[in-house]
Fold this sequence. Notes:
By secondary structure, this protein is mainly beta. The protein has a single domain (22-84), classed as Roll (SH3 type barrels). It contains one helix and seven strands, in the order H-E-E-E-E-E-E-E. It has one helix at residues 12-18, and strands at 28-34, 39-44, 50-54, 58-59, 62-67, 71-76, 79-84. The longest helix is centred in the N-terminal third of the chain and has 7 residues, at 12-18. The protein is elongated. The protein starts with 11 loop residues before the first helix and ends with a strand.
Amino acid sequence: MATQHEGTPTPAIVETHATQEAKLGRIALLGTFGSANAPRAIVRLPRGNTQTVTIGDALAGGTVAAISADRLILSRMGNEQILRMPRG
């Protein structure tokens, strides 16, 4: 069983769920960071893996057109798709 830094045991069920592959069926914006001149974003891809992107990068058959504090704009085949930060 894994442990946290304070030595508290992590329950086996939590450890199992945390390491399972997630298939989401769509792209999700996880976070944005960087400066106004060099913004970056972390996205989760449909198969569950993550990718860090910047403006101009290829992503899911499109191109990252813009990144702001709470959204990423993806340009695909002449259309824009807005990915927003999850609300929680």
